[in-house]
Design goal:
Layout lengths: L5 E6 H17 L6 E7 L2 H7 L5 E4 L4 H10 L19 H8 L5 H18 L1 H4 L7 E8 L4 H18 L5 E11 L10 H20 L10 E4 L8 E4 L6 E8 L5 H20 L3 H6 L8 E10 L2 H43 L14 H12 L8 H14 L9 H23 L2 H12 L6 H4 L4 H26 L5 H89 L6 E3 L10 H6 L3 H6 L5 H14 L17 E8 L1 H4 L6 H12 L3 E6 L5 E9 L7 H12 L1 H8 L22 H6 L3 H11 L1
Parallel strand pairs: 1-2, 1-4, 2-3, 4-5, 5-8, 8-9, 9-10, 11-12
Antiparallel strand pairs: 6-7, 9-13, 11-13
Helix pairs in contact: 1-9, 4-7, 5-7, 8-24, 11-18, 12-13, 12-14, 14-18, 15-17, 17-18, 21-23, 24-25
Amino acid sequence: MTTNPTIVIGVGRGGCRMATQIHDFVTSEEKNAKFEFIGIDTKNDDLKEYTNNDMNRIALDTPSSIWGAQKEEYSYLHSDYELEPTGGAKRQRPVSRYYIDNIQNFENVYSRLSTIISEFVDERGNDFDEEEMDGANVWLVNALGGGTGSGTFPLLSFMLRNILDEIDEAFFVGGVGSLPSLGDEDLTLGTEGNANYYANAYAALRDLMYIVDYDDAGNYPISIPIEADVGPSEFTVEESPFDFYSLLAFREGEMSQDYREQMNNTVATLICLFSEMGGIENFQNDPNIPDSILHSIDGGILEVPVRDLDKLLDIKDRQDALEVELDSVADELEAYREDRDYLQDVVDLHTGEIPEESSPVEEKIVRTARSRAQSLDLEYFDEETLIEERNRCREQIPDLNRNFEMDSVGDYLFYNELAEIIRTKIREHSFEEEIENEWSQYRGKISDADRLDEMDARAKWEDGLQRFYANWEDTLREKYENLGGHRLFKKREISETLDQVESRNTQLGGLYNTYRQLDDAKEVVEARRKECRETLLETTSEYTDHLESLEQEQLELETEQAQYENQRTSIENRLSDFSKSQHTTLPFTNFETFNRRMIEEADSIQYFIDRGVVTESQVAHALNYLIDSLEEPVQDLETYNKTVNVFDYLGVIATRENQSLMDLDAENRQKLSGQVDSFNWVRYENLRNQFVIRLVSMYGRIALENTSEYQTLHEHYMAESESVKDLLNIDEDEDYMPKKFAYPEFHEEDTRVQTYFGLADNIATLNEDSE
């Protein structure tokens, strides 16, 4: 079946929301080429917020400059009404009518609608020539309880008829009005805001009943005067401006975002069903359908919860990634702890010790470092020899694949062992003992002895005893030479003393040289050992800091993992739970085998049944519930005031594969078949989305006398004004209800409306008729 060309016009905030949801559905089905969308509102900000950018927007400018004078001149305006300078009708139905019927906006609205519709016909000319298409559809959708949509839809429907009559193509006009429904609530609302919704809806229903000739009173022709000084003086229709009109009941107690989307989805399903089945005319021409303009609708969706499943898979993917990250962090933590402990044990290892079995430091490495240190000939110690031996040590120490360079460990162990070897040799050297003995013997003969007392043996030798011995030798030589030859005995005595002093000086000098070699080597090695130790301690400190960072990262990852686990559990619980609502999702029971490839490959709901993630009985149960929950939503009075034989229709939009789910096995099909067969008329149309079955039920030949929202208010209104005030729990004057009427010309028999608007001629005529 060819998609019927369709124009959808959303009026007011509620109507624009409906139109936008229809737009989104049509776009997802890739059928937007056959559709045109228009949004009209009295508030430009709302128009931008509640319509898509690719929709036509008609903003009704606030006619502030002419309002003061015309409020007194227009037949349907009153001094009670106010025009907000920031725009919006503020739930004042007559004010919203005026937003179009004024010199500032009228021609713009008329010309924009004419242009958009004419261009739509030009662009889709071939579609209008198809044999199976009787004409295009134009839908006017709005809320009946608000201000803009409720007050303008009669005038716009007449304007549309006038525009469409001028185009050489067949058009059929449908309307959807959302009706604030009490459901099971008490009519005593307690808030003026809600009271306004119901009062406006009542007046709007009175207007609708008149223009569709609800009572078959022969109202036609019907005219709506244009009181702006532009365009035609009136719009006149010879028959109903609507070929089909449907009421959508909104339960005021459930106006959440999800609920609003569910209701608007019902409108989207209805309009797309008509577009797929050849349009409103095709529906009307069906010989099995009785003639009726006014309907009510209900709807539902059975859906594979793809968004939740995608989210669940994203969570599982993220959890898997987190698990990898956690494993990586745990491995890194373990490695850095081992490395830190290893380096700390290296630093804490005493020279000459062999590591304990519990120590991570390898015995072989320590012995290698010690062996290389012992092989160094300290008698010929110099920097070059030291570096050569250190390099040999490096070559013999294996690489342990740690985060640090093993050279730093080998170097430290080598210098540490070598330092101890040198310290031992120094301790064993006799130089210090010999010098102390000499010092105690000759201290009194050294001029700087007090200072040198606190110095080490080397300083005592270099700055004291060495000069003392040199001076002692010089003195002895001088004495020897100054003695005459006749003093042989004295000379021999001095010579012997000189020999002893020189011998002792030479002995101490030799000890000094070997001691100094060791002491210089110690200074070099200790400096290198200290440098290596500081490097190891710095690395250990860095590892400690890094471990703290890793532990914090691990904690954050574990926290995130726990959060995702909670989300996953929540989604799985939601997915496995059968939700009893108008938007029903299939309950999934097997999440272990479910994967992303299934979503990519699935061509129907049957695909998931075949793979065991849902069962056929669950699908049947969901379909049974969904169809069973469909009901006529408007006639809610327990005892009908008017006996009617409601004719109900069921529209199913789904892929052909999903349509076949209506033919489940015998056990599951029995109840489902009975539910489907209970409808007077059933129609199946194709849907592109393989994850959704959309249902819409329509109910014709309904009686508004059987609705609490109309009949209960009507009875109280016709009785007396105080009665309505008590019913709605409001403290308003007696004009509260009459001021809701935007088209007093439709209700000439209503003296309260005529009196409020000062239409004296109509009142006089009514009085004459009563006489």
